[in-house]
Design goal:
This protein has 298 residues and is an all-alpha fold. It has a domain of 180 residues: Alpha Horseshoe (Leucine-rich Repeat Variant), CATH 1.25.10.10. The chain has 15 helices and no strands. Helix 5 crosses helix 8 and helix 11 crosses helix 12. The relative contact order is 0.05. Pfam families: Arm. This is Armadillo segment polarity protein.
Length: 298
């Protein structure tokens, strides 16, 4: 009995010592005990988020919440229109947003993305057709202007055709017009104005990226005119000429013989003294194509 009381006293003394030395494990007092989470620090974020959500919910009464819900329901179609067809809304129209985080999209905005992509594709198709129709109507008149006796008129027409050739739809319309390509080649042969020559050569360069364009240039007698341009003092003109001839040599049947007959081999050899590495690579490839299988060219 005495021994049992001694053991009980020892337990009381040990408990008192734990409290005095602040080594409470939590088993005795339970004051600082929290269950360990396998999620770690995420619990703190969850508690903060839950607390914030709770405070937000408490800031509105039932009547206010019902009014907000009715407003969102009544403006649902407007919010869909705003996401998919914003241009159909009246200017200055105020539409309540369901977006509380500006860095993330709403459900309506995410669902509208495929429709917006389709809409843009349709707009591009319409613009493409508009460009093609505009070029088709303008080409006959521009071809006449390129053949005008007034050099200023020819220069303005060449500039307009060059701008049109930068767009895919109008470029196809130009290359499908033998009259237009022939007028460009004629302008190269007859004009002494540097800017007009640059625009006409640039247009042929743009056409040379397509097989139909290469054929049109070849049939219009463009190769002798391009070979002549290799002797120009204007870097841009020489670049347009050599790259167009390069495309012709690679992809157009009969171009090799036409370049040889026009004296292109000698003109290209004279260009080997240039310092531009990329330019020299094009020139040497042209010479390689001309010399391959032709003993006279070698």
């Amino acid at each position: 009995m005495g021994m049992q009381q001694g053991r009980d006293m020892n337990k009381d003394a040990q408990t008192a010592m734990w409290h005095q030395t602040y080594h409470d494990s939590g088993i005795m007092s339970g004051a600082t005990t929290t269950a360990h989470s396998v999620k770690g620090d995420e619990d703190d974020d969850y508690m903060k988020t839950t607390h914030m959500s709770f405070e937000w919910e408490q800031s509105f009464n039932d009547h206010e919440m019902q009014a907000m819900n009715e407003q969102f329901v009544s403006t649902r179609s407007q919010r869909i229109r705003q996401a998919m067809f914003p241009e159909t809304l009246e200017e200055g129209a105020q539409i309540p947003s369901t977006q509380f985080d500006s860095t993330s999209s709403t459900a309506v905005q995410r669902l509208a993305e495929p429709s917006l992509m389709l809409k843009q594709a349709v707009v591009n198709l319409i613009n493409y057709q508009d460009d093609a129709d505009l070029a088709t109507r303008a080409i006959p008149e521009l071809a006449k202007l390129l053949n005008d006796d007034d050099q200023v008129v020819v220069g303005q027409a060449a500039m307009m055709v060059h701008q049109l050739s930068r767009k895919d739809a109008s470029r196809h319309a130009i290359m499908n017009s033998p009259q237009m390509v022939a007028a460009l080649v004629r302008a190269l042969n007859n004009m002494s104005d540097v800017e007009t020559t640059r625009c006409a050569a640039g247009t042929l360069h743009n056409l040379s990226h397509h097989r139909q364009g290469l054929l049109s240039i070849f049939k219009s007698g463009g190769i002798p005119a391009l070979v002549k341009l290799l002797g120009s003092q204007v870097e841009a003109v020489v670049f347009y000429a050599i790259t167009t001839l390069h495309n012709l040599l690679l992809h157009q049947e009969g171009a090799k013989m036409a370049v040889r007959l026009a004296g292109g081999l000698q003109k290209m050899v004279a260009l080997l003294g240039r310092g531009n590495v990329k330019f020299l690579a094009i020139v040497t490839d042209c010479l390689h194509v001309l010399a391959y299988g032709n003993q006279e060219s070698k």
